[in-house]
Design goal:
- It is built from 6 helices and 25 strands.
- The chain is mainly beta.
- It has 2 domains: 287 residues, Deoxyribonuclease I, Chain A (4-Layer Sandwich), CATH 3.60.10.10; 140 residues, Jacalin-like lectin domain (Vitelline Membrane Outer Layer Protein I, subunit A, Aligned Prism).
- The longest helix is centred in the middle third of the chain and has 21 residues.
- This is Jacalin-type lectin domain-containing protein.
- Pfam families: Exo_endo_phos2, Jacalin.
């Protein structure tokens, strides 16, 4: 991935000590879920025979049982290597990623979820989780080298990985709500102090041999809120201050900092808020009250509601092509004046024009064009889509756009897999989002209130 520089402006302030029981907030949001990030130390005793965590085969049984018992919404695990099958045997979440392999082969990153997803990418892992109809949150799992490693090469590698992830989110999650939860290996006390200069940017983002973690610039570049920082009062620890490392055993409160973090943002459609932050270490103890892993499991409670004025449809098609999203360029008062579909055997491309003059074009330029102009009081009420396989990729084969007057245009060929995206009452199509290339691979619609 290419690396790019990005400036940041985050104020460092005093580190606040907050008791864990003060992080509970009254959930003012009608839709609630939680996430858990947990490094499970799933390394075989045969590989590391002198490891003090030499009972992970048994501990993984307990971990799986606890995950099922507390019914977490979405769980990101790290270091899930040699006891992966055991973890899945004793957990009961319906949606799970397949293992990428054991220690020294796989990434150790996996997800167990009560929610389905439509796109999935490995490296760090990225998935677009469907919370409800037209409600998607991009969720990312990662494990960067451990926070206890502080050598210049370790820090440089950590900065580079974090910066690459920031660039990925900027490109592939444009307009979307995002939750990043995993082992960042980063601490705010190891960040560089803010200096608005190119020298600082190199220092912070990992483009030189200078030291320091870049978790602050990661949050700033992508508009992310750290749920732990929010829970302790809103101000991260001072850069270069003495780190407040969590003690051994069960932390007495959440004032200590760990490298396992949860960062999030909403979108122009989704108002997403953290309503509670917890170290769930006390939940993950053996029957003899021993720790089951060497990391504190991090749980964050979330609530969300849909903002007034804009809505989205579900996404249809396949996980191929390049991500696009018109949402950042759309306002609640946007009005559609024309729509053009281009296609022959499939939907090659489409163009939407707003009353403001803003034009959105996606897909390729091939195919015959069919257009609908909209006058006052007219709007696109529904769009039928069909999809199928072309060159082993799922693509949109057919599209029919229908005005509220009944007039329509259509291109492509109907397949056995079709769905109709219908605008909510009082809304009309004003934009699209999905994935494209020379044709359209995946498509959903953005609606504005009439």
């Amino acid at each position: 991935m290419l690396c790019r520089s990005s400036s940041l402006l985050l104020t460092c302030s005093l580190y606040l000590t907050v008791s864990a029981n003060l992080t509970e907030q009254v959930a003012a949001y009608p839709n609630n879920f939680n996430v858990l990030s947990m490094s499970i130390r799933g390394i075989s005793n045969a590989i590391v025979p002198d490891d003090k965590w030499n009972k992970q085969d048994i501990n993984t049984v307990y971990i799986g049982q606890k995950m099922a018992q507390y019914n977490y919404g979405i769980i990101n695990v790290q270091e899930d290597f040699n006891y992966h099958a055991t973890l899945y045997k004793y957990d009961n979440h319906p949606f799970r990623t397949a293992t990428s392999g054991g220690y020294l082969v796989g990434s150790g990153l996996n997800t167990l979820s009560n929610y389905s997803w439509i796109d999935f990418i490995r490296g760090f892992t990225f998935m677009r989780v469907r919370m409800d109809e037209g409600v998607y949150i991009d969720m990312i799992n990662l494990r960067v080298n451990d926070a206890s490693t502080t050598g210049p090469d370790d820090q440089k590698a950590r900065r580079l990985k974090i910066h690459q992830l920031a660039d990925f989110i900027e490109t592939n999650s444009a307009g979307n709500a995002v939750i990043v939860f995993g082992d960042t290996g980063s601490r705010y006390t190891r960040c560089a102090p803010f200096l608005p200069s190119p020298i600082f940017l190199n220092f912070e983002l990992g483009n030189s041999t200078s030291r320091g973690d870049n978790i602050r610039s990661f949050a700033a570049q992508n508009g992310l809120v750290d749920a732990w920082v929010q829970a302790i009062g809103g101000d991260p620890p001072i850069a270069r201050a003495e780190p407040n490392v969590c003690p051994g055993g069960v932390p007495p409160n959440i004032s200590c900092e760990v490298g396992d973090k949860v960062l999030y943002r909403g979108s122009p459609i989704i108002d997403l808020k953290s309503t509670g932050f917890f170290y769930d270490t006390s939940r993950f103890l053996s029957p003899k009250e021993n720790l089951l892993t060497d990391h504190n499991p991090v749980r964050v409670e979330f609530g969300y509601l849909l903002k007034d004025g804009l809505r989205q449809s579900d996404l249809y098609g396949g996980p191929h092509g390049t991500w696009f999203n018109d949402l950042p360029s759309i306002s609640v008062d946007s009005k559609l004046t024309s729509i053009t579909l281009r296609g022959g055997n499939r939907l090659d491309g489409l163009t939407l024009t707003l009353a403001s003059g803003q034009t959105f074009t996606h897909g390729g330029s091939g195919g015959k064009a069919h257009s609908l102009n909209l006058t006052s009081g007219e709007y696109i009420e529904s769009v039928k889509l069909c999809w199928g396989q072309k060159d082993r990729h799922t693509r949109i084969f057919y599209s029919q756009a229908i005005k509220n007057s009944g007039q329509d245009i259509q291109v492509g060929k109907v397949t056995g897999n079709c769905a109709t995206a219908t605008a909510p009452s009082g809304y009309g199509v004003v934009g699209t989002y999905g994935q494209d290339g020379n044709e359209v691979d995946q498509l959903g619609f953005i609606y504005a209130q009439l």
